[in-house]
Amino acid sequence: MTLPRVWFITGTSTGFGRTLTELVLERDERVVATARDLTTLHDLLAKYGQDRLLVVKVDVTRIEEVEVAFARAKLGFGRIDVVVNNAGYAHLGEVESMDDSTAREIFETNFWGALKVTRRAIEFFRESNPPGVGGRLLQISSVLGVVGLGAHTFYAASKFALEGMTESLSQELDPAWNINITLIEPGWFRTAAVSKIRWAPQHPAYSNPDLPANKVRAEWRGFVSPGDTQKAVEVFYKIAGLPDPPLHFPLGQEAIDMIRKKTATLNATITEYESWSEKLLSQDV
């Protein structure tokens, strides 16, 4: 008899995290749901009970809270099969509009917080799960971790950092540990988390309304994300069950189109200027 999987999901108060938690519970699996505000999870706890859902207060920027959550997962369920690194933070604005403290806050959650969870997840899969069982780590990145976009500068930078760290980490793992990692790179999806996004005050030098970042500002209040969050998390769920999952998984047609456009531009540049890199080795004459 196959035991129901145990999921550890961060950032479950709203957005992808909340919707995925609901889906996993509906599929008769177990969830360790972490959030900074646990009141948002009271309804699910009342519905499913502590034998199915363990809620833990976690701010991913605090390593002691991350460690407590993994310890409670071990105590409550004995193992973790899937970790979903979902907690995130967005504050938009141009490079010159954003103060350093705000930019650092973005990185503290989206990169350093995600790194704290990543390290603990890898260790748990290797040392706390039964030998050879391993686990799945889903890094909820963004299309903006692959393609930069004006006014999303520091959010994109934090996701680029997450992508670089994860790509490198995937090459460090011993295959015997049976740990698989996938970077999920969604485009725009309709979640409650979007309403929490804040903007930096506009820098006076960037008043030209034709600048791409200002077009984003002007359209932001009326913008409705086209993607269906429920359908997106169903894909997350399927990815977690793939026997040989990809490292990168762009999600949504917008994300695919943006990445294809960047790839085509980069390939064209390489083709045009490849000759400039010829004979650059020290022994070449």
TrEMBL record:
PROSITE patterns: ADH_SHORT. Transmembrane segments: none annotated. Keywords: NADP, Oxidoreductase. GO terms for molecular function: oxidoreductase activity. The keyword Protein transport does not apply. Gene3D superfamilies: NAD(P)-binding Rossmann-like Domain (3.40.50.720). Pfam families: adh_short. CDD domains: 17beta-HSD-like_SDR_c. Belongs to the short-chain dehydrogenases/reductases (SDR) family. This is NAD-P-binding protein. It comes from Pycnoporus cinnabarinus (Cinnabar-red polypore).
